[in-house]
Amino acid sequence: MDLRRSMLFIPGNNPGMLQNGGVFGADSVILDLEDAVAPMEKDAARFLIAHALQTVDYGTSEKVVRINPLDTFAAEDIKAIVPCCPDAILVPKVESAADIHQVVSMIAAVEKPGQTPVKIIALLETPCGIAEAYSIAKADKRVVALSLGAEDYTAGLGAMRTREGNEIFTARTLVINAAAAAGIQSIDTPYTDANDEKGLLADTKLAKSLGFKGKLSINPRQIDTIHNVFNPSMSDIDWAEQVIHAIRKAEAEGSGVASLNGKMVDLPIVNRAERILHLARLLGLIEEVK
Amino acid sequence: MASISKTAQAGTLESSDVMITVTPGAKDSGIVIEVESIVLAQYGEDIKAILLSTVQKQDITDIYIKAVDRGALDCTICARLLAALSRAGAVLKEEML
Hints:
The complex is a heterodimer of chains A (290) and B (97).
Chain A: E1 6-11, H1 15-20, E2 28-32, H2 42-55, E3 62-66, H3 74-81, E4 88-91, H4 97-110, E5 119-124, H5 127-131, H6 133-137, E6 143-148, H7 150-157, H8 169-182, E7 185-188, H9 197-210, E8 214-217, H10 223-230, H11 234-252, E9 258-260, E10 263-265, H12 267-282
Chain B: E1 8-10, E2 18-24, E3 31-37, H1 40-57, E4 63-69, H2 74-87
Parallel strand pairs in B: 3-4
Antiparallel strand pairs in B: 1-2, 2-4
Helix pairs in contact in B: 1-2
């Protein structure tokens, strides 16, 4: 499982920001060819991102490129970017499994022999996309995550975006459920007020509580807050280790039933504990399961 | 030998960027490069070398290249020149490098 607590957008036609993208510690950097680039500058941004992918050291950050929608410049973007070995392509405005199939064929046509297969993260930001979330998630093995784009989605609904986000509650839960059912990750919409740290914290906590595995980010200042929320706490880790210890003890004793502090430890509890410990190991918070 | 058909530009004057203008030269005029840079004394020759190497890889001759540099990395200089060449009508041999 790849770590995608934070996915930071970097404007694709800004060399200064592209060359510094690796210093912020985001789990993923998203080099953006879509909204951050004016239509007349798409060509120059493609050259710039292609060279950045092959030259700039993004450290441990996953290298993701957001291409343009399929009905605009997606074909040119994929042709230019995929041979430069990004880890993944973020595809905006995905509305159906057919969209994914189309992207997969375009990627496969230009991947170099021996190249690590480029993954796909589907950005769902229309009512149609949300309605088709599960079929999109299951469309191809390259699809590793669904993400939510709330600005376009609420425009499609005819609803106003609010700080509380009630208008996107249904979309959030549908995306989370579809991704979980398909066994892939769900990534929440960005919190667009970069100066509202309290709002970001509350929104990120809500996203985690609903089941999202990470959050898109539009400003490097948001990274620490997002990581702090998605990181397992020490009490989470302690609890998870106790659960695993209890289940192992029960197995060793030949008992089919384990309990912890008077509560039964069943499979969903064990799965949750294992997820916490897996994340803790990825983050270096623990070395191995005790 | 390839060529360009019109004047074109790519890049900006923002920090870490470079604005590159390419103009078709007269026949047999060769490759002429002019650089303005905030770090001309230290890196002027390096910038010229990148521009020359990039345009030679495309087999383009008879061209005037003007670069106004604001501290761009090599990869940015190369990317901006290729974008300018493409906009000027060059059919690039290798689009990215």
